[in-house]
């Protein structure tokens, strides 16, 4: 029976990850579907292009929460049910995969930056803080959200392994999960990488084409 619990936890984490909050939040707030404008990515950065900072912040927090929650629950309450580090790795990765390929939204998901950060915070607040700080530093100096995400993702497994035995004790399954998330995140950013190399990537704060619905309103 104990073998069932990790499976159930992993499935539950994937289903939670499949809640595309960029789409849900914009629908609730009466905004255009983020899959129809800008980068067409259902994530907080693209929601920000709708002009609603509130919607973008709520999306960011909820996307991070769905990565953090399953990891935190397993770490807090999983031991009596045989849920150890291997399950922590599985639920974190499952929540991340749910965001990338959400079953509730025709498997058309986002790039997973906020959800991955939530998973890291669930593993360790210090790990999440170090990764978030890396994102902020790169974003501040270079003004590219995609570049900041790629650099932060690359450094996350380095941070996890670098301070093994100092701040926490690194576990192989969790390290593998973090590396898998970093590689998948880089793959989801492949078009951004091409635009960065071509010098065509949009900088933070730059204006992209307005949502079609907003343009239509502006004409009336």
UniProtKB/TrEMBL annotation:
Keywords linked to the UniProt accession: Acyltransferase, Cell membrane, Lipid biosynthesis, Lipid metabolism, Membrane, Phospholipid biosynthesis, Phospholipid metabolism, Transferase, Transmembrane, Transmembrane helix
MF annotations from Gene Ontology: glycerol-3-phosphate O-acyltransferase activity
Catalysis: reaction(s): an acyl phosphate + sn-glycerol 3-phosphate = a 1-acyl-sn-glycero-3-phosphate + phosphate
Subcellular location: Cell membrane
Main location (coarse class): membrane
Membrane topology designation: Multi-pass membrane protein
Family: Belongs to the PlsY family.
Role this protein plays: Catalyzes the transfer of an acyl group from acyl-phosphate (acyl-PO(4)) to glycerol-3-phosphate (G3P) to form lysophosphatidic acid (LPA). This enzyme utilizes acyl-phosphate as fatty acyl donor, but not acyl-CoA or acyl-ACP.
Stored HAMAP family: PlsY
Protein name: Glycerol-3-phosphate acyltransferase
């Amino acid at each position: 029976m104990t073998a069932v619990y990790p499976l159930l936890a992993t499935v539950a984490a994937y289903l939670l990850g499949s809640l595309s909050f960029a789409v849900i939040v914009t629908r609730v707030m009466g905004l255009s579907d983020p899959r129809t404008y800008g980068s067409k990515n259902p994530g907080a950065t693209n929601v920000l292009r709708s002009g609603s900072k509130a919607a973008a912040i709520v999306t960011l927090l909820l996307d991070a929460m769905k990565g953090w929650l399953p990891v935190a629950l397993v770490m807090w309450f999983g031991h009596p049910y045989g849920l150890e580090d291997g399950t922590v790795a599985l639920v974190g990765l499952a929540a991340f995969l749910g965001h990338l390929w959400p079953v509730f939204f025709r498997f058309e998901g986002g790039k997973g930056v906020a959800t991955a950060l939530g998973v890291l915070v669930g593993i360790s607040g210090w790990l999440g803080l170090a990764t978030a700080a890396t994102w902020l530093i790169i974003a501040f100096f270079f003004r590219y959200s995609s570049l900041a995400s790629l650099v932060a993702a690359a450094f996350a497994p380095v941070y996890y392994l670098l301070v093994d035995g100092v701040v926490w004790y690194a576990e192989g399954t969790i390290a593998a999960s973090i590396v898998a998330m970093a590689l998948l995140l880089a793959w989801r950013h492949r078009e951004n990488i091409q635009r960065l190399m071509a010098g065509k990537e949009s900088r933070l704060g730059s204006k992209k084409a307005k949502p079609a619905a907003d343009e239509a309103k502006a004409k009336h």
